[in-house]
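[Meeting: bench + compute handoff]

Bench side (C.D.) handed over the final construct sequence. Compute side (W.E.) agreed to return the predicted structure before the next meeting so the bench team could plan truncations. Sequence as handed over:
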Amino acid sequence: MVESEHLARRIEIRGCVQGVGFRPFVVRAATRLGVRGRVRNESGCVRIHAEGTAETLERFRVVLAEELPPASSIESISDSPAELVGYRSFAVEASATAEPPRIRVPKDLAVCENCLAELADPSNRRHAHAFITCTDCGPRYSLIQELPFDRSATSMSRFGVCFACAEEYSDVDDRRFHGETISCRECGPQLRYASMTQSTAAEGDPALAAAIETIRGGGIVAVRGIGGYQLVCRADDAAVVMLLRSRKNRPTKPFAVMVRDVDEARRHVWVSSEEAMILRSRENPIVLLERVASREVDGRAIVDAAAPHSAALGLMLPTSPLHRLLIDGVGSPLVVTSGNRGDEPLALDDAEAERDLAPMVDGFLHHDRPILRAVDDSVVRWIDGAAVPIRAARGYAPISLPEIEAMLGKRRDAPPAMLALGGHQKSSIALWTGSQAVLSQHLGDLETLAARTHFDRAIRDLTRLYGCRPMSYVHDEHPEYHSTRWARTRGVDAVTVQHHHAHAVSAMVDHGLLEREVLAIVWDGSGYGSDGTTWGGETLRCTATAYRRVASLRPIALAGGEAAIRRPHRIAAALLLDALGHEAIMESPQLLEHLGLTFGRFESITSLIHGRLHTPWASSVGRLFDGVAALILGEAAAETTHEAEAAMMLESIVDASITDAYRIPHSLDPLPALGSGDPSIPRGDWRIMISTIVNDLMRGVPPGVMATRFHNALAEWAMRVASGERIGEVLLSGGCFQNRYLTERTLDLLRSAGKSARGPRSIPPGDGGLAAGQLAVVLARRT
């Protein structure tokens, strides 16, 4: 029998194919099929030289496309003839770095089940080793220095590899074959515990034991995680949770809670099958879940202080082997929150942590694996059949934007590198390298000097990692945003994009609709309007390059500006003034008492509004939420300590069985705000609704009924606006659509009206997704 002729093929694979065990997968597939050759990482792809019979090579190509490692994904495979070399085996070659990166940067992955089994096995040499990883799990993005993803280009390069680990690394049948973060107790990173009350420090296993003892005893420990430090304490101890709130100066903002597994999660929250999959996923986000009635569970109930004023609780499973060891050792759910001061970035190294976090903690659990970039925990919520990122960070970022790449791929000449800078709160940045587009991890608010320094560092880091130098910057129209001022001082092209148009186009990117005209309903807290006023309740008819405002919300007076946002009873007073008039309110002292306002304080607010002193006006659904929350809930929502707190309180009492709604008709009445734009734009007139809520208050209607009717009123208003426009595609964007009930109710009504309505999917609907829209707008205009 004549042996079939051997051929050679050059196969190039692009996508998320580095740092995810792809080369080991290729070697195992080749060995199994009898293919000979070589595989290597290059800056833009994985490149394979394969030799074998035509039939064998075809089977090999099918396996490469269909039997992928769990964390990988393929965007393209090219296959071309190559010169036959005559290889006798299949092996991994050293990586090549000649070209600029065009590759999907690997994301940080949660510890896998195989590594957890080793962690718990006393007979395994990695038993209780806090830094177990394999090709299927472990840190990636947080420790990459440069691409391609090789150990020498990560922060693991400082650790040598022992003989046993080296054997595993070289064994094609081992789970750690070419596992670049491989380590064990002998050669890997080590733990160190520093107590705030004792001068001695423990290392190794005693360090872990000391941290566990401190936490179990009601203390707070700063733990160095994957992307930065976290503050950790028991979640079943109200006293220590309140102590953490006091030390961190975080009175009411919810804390995330870590539980051991999904079974334990179900003791505290409702978990659907889809939400269980998200909890168990390799991305390992914090998942916002509906709480069950408060009750003790084996003496380990999560205290209400972990998430006051909220019907949702943010839960996550252990991220790393270290987190699993901590939760098993303490024996209770753990509060795990960002290790930072106020709105500042995460602490990354020992010295920074001990300088910034010392007043908050009783001890530090350090380790010596360097963190190269701060990456916070991601937060997601299951909305309308999708895991919507509220905060996109560890496990999700950087987010690839193939829709932008596809739009530009149809053009002959791609625009040069460009960076979009997002907004001011929940900042993120988006980069066009000249060949690919990505959205960065959550960077935080840009209020403090430390936050702005972190913003600068993140820009340098992202552009260096992707090997490009932006030739232009895109920023918001707001003249006082730090990102705006930053762009205008760079000495290169700086381009503005209107805030709500950017939100709308980010949704178009999310759904691959950049070539279409859509109707975008964009509701948020505030954004600088093209007329110089504050917008936030807009319906836009738009393409990727232009928009037309077709409806908005009646503007609301914000007496004292930012002070009104922190004190929603000021907004409630403004709503009452516009809806009822001054005289009617003065004749209802019980209404002011309900809001926690004296006559004198109310008169001061009235003076600010009538005199137009320090009183901007905002057509903002977010601010309407604040004012209505204060009106319905009274003093409980009179003042807030974090963004959207009043809105969260209102959402937490919604009763989905209630279907009736207040009325928000359209109005073309003269507007109270000076320079508030085109008076011909239909305005959602909330005055009738406010009058009805006041009547319901006087009649003793339960707050949950009023809250639901308010949500339903907004959804019905959106449906009526969309029904008046001859366009089928309707997209929802903006921070208000992080509210699951509002989003799903609005989508249901739009779909019942015959619209193709879509909510958020993979890009954050709030300002965390703004940069993706900014980038797409300018790139579309330039092609």
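W.E. noted at the follow-up: The first helix runs from residue 22 to 33. C.D. will use this when planning the next construct.
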